[in-house]
Every structure is written in C-alpha cells, then in structure tokens.
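Practice problem. Given the sequence and the SMILES for pyridoxal-5'-phosphate, write out the predicted structure.
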Amino acid sequence: MKLFDVYPLLDVEIVKAKDSTLWDSEGNEYLDFYGGHAVISIGHTNDRYVKTITEQLSNIGFYSNSVKIGAQQRLVAALAELMDSRKKEYQLFLCNSGAEANENAMKLASFHTGRKVVIAFKGSFHGRTSLAVAATDNPKIVAPINETPNIVFMPFNDIEALREYFASNGDKVAAVITEGIQGVGGVQVASVEFLRTIRELTSQYGALYIADAVQCGTGRSGSYFSHDYAGVDADIYSMAKGIGNGFPMAAVLIAPFLEPKYGMLGTTFGGAYLACAAATAVAEEMKERNLIDNAAKMGEYLLTELNRIKVRYPDKVKDVRGRGLMIGFELFESAAPLRAALLKNYSIFVGSASGAGVVRLLPSLTISKAECERVIRAIEELIAE
Ligand SMILES: Cc1ncc(COP(=O)(O)O)c(C=O)c1O
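Answer key:
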C-alpha cells in the first residue's frame, strides 16, 4: 500500500516541535512562520494543551452526541470569553473541518430562507466538500459532480456589482459567504465598506451573511474574527484551523434567530471530548496570555517592517497586505526561490498562496518580537541579493 499522492512535499520530516520551533528527523532546527497553514494558534505542544488533552484522554476520549457532554459546555463558555458580548447569544454547532463548517453554514442558510443561491467571491477558498468546493474559486478542484448553478461568483470587494446583483435577484439569495481576509486567494483583505454592504444587502433581502473565519479567525487578525473590523455581525461564522491548534475541530457559530431542529445538522465526531478539551485549552491560553493582542502587535511590527522593505526595494516588492498575523508579501516575480532560500539558508518555514509572487506569513499567535525580527532580517537580506 502507498499514500495517495496529492500533496507536493518539501523534503523534510518534522518530528518534534515546541512553540514556534520545529525539529526535523536529523535534529535540524527551524522557525515555524507558517503555523502548519494557519492552524497553530497557541504554539506547538503548549503545556496547557498537552495536559488538558492528556487528562481528558485518561478519563474518556469519545462518546456520541446522544449524551450530555460537559466538555462542550466548557468550550462554549471559554470561546464566549474571547468574543464580543453580542456573540454570547449565538449558538455553537461543533464539527470537524473547515469545509464541513461551511457546508453546514450554507445548508443552514438554505433551510432558513428556503432559497438556493449562495453568492461567493472571486479568489475565495471555502473547502473541498460538495457545496464548499462549489463556492471555491478554483475550477481545478471542482469535480463535475460538484458543479451547481446555485453558486454565483461575484468580484471581491466590488460593492456596486453586489448591489446590482441583489437589485435583480435578491429574492433568490440564501446567503453571501466571504472570508474576512482571503487566504488561499493571496491574503486579500475584505474592505470595511464591502463587509458592511454584505450585511446591509443580506438584511434587506432576507438572506444570511456567512463569515468564513476558518483561516482568518481565531484571533489571528488581531480581533477574534477579522470580519469584526467592519463593526457588523455576520449571521453565521465558520471556524476551524486555529480553534484546535492542530486537533481536528471546527465549529459553526449561529445567530440566535436561527432555530435548531433535531436532526437538522449532525456528525459522529463533532464536539467529541478530546476535540473540545483541545479547543478549550486553546481558548483559555489565548485569554490568559492576551494572545490576540500579541497577534495585533506583532502583526503591526511585521507590516511596518515589510512596508519599509517595499519602499526600499520598489522594483522587487509589489505589495504588502494583511492584518495581524495573516500577512501577504508579494514580489513582482515568483516568490518560490525566496521561500526556498528562507527554508534552506535561514531554516524558516513560510507559506505560499495562489498568486506565484506571494509569500504568506501565518505564525502562531505566540510569536515573539525576536522571532519576527529574525524573519524580517532574513527576508531583507534575500531581497537585497
Ligand atoms: C478560508 C478557508 N475556508 C475553508 C477551508 C477548508 O478547511 P478544511 O481544510 O479544514 O476543510 C480553508 C482551508 O484552507 C480555508 O482557508
């Protein structure tokens, strides 16, 4: 037997990690400025995280959603502590992956409105299951069976186009789904006006606003949800990645007016004891150490420094964008050589995005100033070459 070969792999095997330091099978040390693709939120093998999961495992690892699970209530309480007070009235549905969270979010919108059309945006990524992939702007990963006329793509950040669409089709729209910061799409930040317009139009036409916070959420942007910068609430938030710091866990945060019915949504593993223990440890650690503030501060430092590099090398650096610890640094040329050199010569992991010139920075929210300085020095030396 062999693995189904769908991932292009770097020639390195990571066997150990602590906070933002990784070690490979030969004992070489690396700085993780990629967070395992925005998943690592409180650092690798965090003490509280390991202890909480281990203790839970020694009591009970799994039982089905047919009994009361106190670990779910503890998670709800811990998450509410991190969000604005209005979210205290929201409801949480627990599941297993970002795609599943989005799938359920869109289903819920359709159940609620009785409508079928979901508006998604150019450059979006919402996952690989049937509806989620149909709402993802990448035909290469959409199988013929996933194709549906129910998803309509509109240009990202284009307020007028959205208004026009609603003016003639608003009564058919079940939901608008958008990332607050497009990740795979190259760290494109949704403008405050754009998110406010989505809120306004969905309310006006009886549709729902779904905020995909899978990558840009969990405090990474310097606010719990990057969508919060617009000062308006979504009806549904999908959450995954950083919520479990590597433990498979996802959630759908649902506005109070959306009424649950038995059997409407469900999953075998969602909200199981271990996942809840992991996510509760993450939320508690974030709260206790003010990690969302750290994300904001470190992000500001990185963006300032990267912009300084852009001004210094205007013929090489095309753009710097992002919020908090979700940053895109775009070169005029392919960024693949820069990413490879960061890894080979400086032992630093960073990410890529759909645009060839983009370097994506997605470190843990625990990242230190010294670690950020190390990355800036390395990038600047490589750009100067
Ligand atoms: C914005 C966004 N939504 C959804 C997903 C899908 O999440 P998962 O891979 O957990 O299904 C991703 C994954 O990268 C994502 O970035």
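Check your answer against the key. The mean pLDDT is 98.
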